[in-house]
Design goal:
Layout lengths: L6 E9 L5 H10 L10 H4 L3 H6 L6 E7 L2 E7 L7 H11 L3 E7 L6 H13 L3 E6 L6 H18 L3 E5 L2 H10 L5 E6 L8 H8 L16 E9 L3 E8 L4 E2 L3 E4 L3 E10 L4 E2 L1 E2 L3 E8 L10 E3 L6 E10 L6 E3 L3 E6 L2 E7 L6 E3 L3 E12 L6 E6 L1 E11 L1
Parallel strand pairs: 1-3, 1-4, 4-5, 5-7, 6-7
Antiparallel strand pairs: 2-3, 8-9, 8-16, 9-15, 10-14, 11-12, 11-16, 12-13, 12-15, 17-22, 17-24, 18-21, 19-20, 19-23, 20-22, 23-24
Helix pairs in contact: 7-8
Length: about 400
């Protein structure tokens, strides 16, 4: 019997704190009902304080199979305090679909608006999941949908489309990649109402063809571990050619290493990691730990500290950017403090766009045409790298 082939996809979970992101993932992955008091959260949280507080503070990945689709869910933080972690998780994961979870009672929190803006700028297909429908009546539902629709129309020309039955999924699957509509699912984690349509949709989604963001052509580390008896283990996305057990590698262009073992994103031991998928590498090296954003390569790569980017400043921010201004950039899994170093005087304010010169405090591996976000607390702008210096 031939081995069944799956389509590997990534789905990122965004939304305000307490909107039920982790619980939705728990219900999708386990198929169990929540008790309304965080039962499913225990199955998906990484740290004890996340279970007790109900607030995700770290990035976590959870695999599940829906039809022919093997989906890795990326659970991202919703609290404003952890926005930098959320942006870094989105940049390193680059999901094929984003699920924006909103509380049905108050669907337009500040961080919901922030996440919605990031989603629009990344130009990744997304859906809305309205949670806790078992708690509220029809009047609340109508009011919340009106609020949400107003917020969406203020930022985009896409039309909200409520999924009420399985037949509605057909239209959603046909049109969501073109980003002309935004499917809205209503679910209850306690009764599992609405999960039949959500699972049907997830079983039929496919990879988007044209997206603004892309992975660099190397293995980029988004997490590292030091495991007793095994040594250094790193996880990340493989943007290069196939990596095999026994390959000799370079770590940040400075240290040698050998790949001892490989696990794919579904915790299976494999002998090779193909291009375009996530996985973990066990590495034999003198290096004990490596920082997030480390590049793993077979051949030497160029590390840079300065670059030029075409940028857009968000109209919602009253920031003034001049030469010497310091900010934090996010490019994939790389997060670096930067200084603006334009050779001539510049003044950028909300709504402006143009070319800025960035100098990072530490070198990193970047590629031309990669997209960036930069922030001062919240996101203040985005752009695209046009030249490496």
């Amino acid at each position: 019997m031939a081995e069944e082939k799956y389509v590997d996809l990534g789905v990122g979970m965004l939304g305000n704190v307490d909107s039920g992101k982790s619980t939705v993932i728990g219900a999708l992955v386990t198929g169990k009902k929540d008790d309304g008091d965080g039962l499913l959260r225990k199955d998906v949280s990484r740290h004890p304080h996340e279970i007790s507080s109900g607030r995700t503070s770290d990035i976590a990945y959870h695999p599940a199979v829906f039809g022919k689709n093997r989906i890795t869910f990326c659970d991202l933080a919703g609290h404003e305090k952890y926005l930098k972690t959320t942006i870094q998780g989105l940049g390193s994961f680059l999901p094929d679909l984003i699920c924006l979870c909103v509380d049905k009672y108050t669907p337009t929190y500040k961080m919901t608006r922030e996440h919605l803006g990031i989603t629009f700028r990344m130009k990744i297909p997304f859906i809305v999941i309205m949670t806790k429908i078992d708690l509220y009546d029809e009047d609340v539902t109508t009011h919340s949908l009106t609020q949400l629709s107003t917020l969406i129309k203020r930022n985009s020309s896409r039309k909200p489309y409520t999924i009420k039955r399985i037949e509605d999924v057909d239209l959603a699957v046909r049109t969501y990649l073109g980003m002309s509509i935004i499917p809205i699912f209503h679910v209850s984690n306690v009764t599992l109402q609405g999960y039949d349509t959500l699972k049907e949709f997830l079983s039929r989604i496919s990879k988007p063809i044209n997206t603004r963001f892309f992975h660099p052509s190397c293995f980029m580390v988004d997490r590292d571990y030091r495991i007793r008896g095994i040594g250094l283990v790193v996880s990340g996305f493989n943007g290069t050619d196939v990596l095999n057990v026994g390959d000799k590698i370079l770590i940040n262009n400075t240290h040698d290493g050998i790949i001892r073992s490989i696990h794919n994103d579904f915790r299976e031991v494999v002998q090779s990691l193909p291009h375009g998928v996530r996985g973990c590498l066990g590495i034999r090296s003198v290096v004990d730990r490596v920082p997030i954003g480390t590049v793993i390569s077979v051949n030497p790569v160029r590390m840079v500290q300065e670059f030029i980017a075409n940028v857009n400043i968000l109209t919602s921010h009253s920031v003034t950017i001049t030469k010497g201004y310091q900010t934090v950039i996010h490019c994939g899994c790389i997060r670096r403090p930067c200084t603006i170093t334009n050779p001539a005087p510049v003044i950028f304010r909300g709504g402006d766009n143009g070319r800025l010169y960035f100098k990072m405090f530490k070198p990193a591996y970047l590629e031309v045409n990669q997209s960036i976000f930069f922030r001062e607390g919240t996101v203040i702008g985005d752009g695209q790298i046009v030249e490496l210096l």
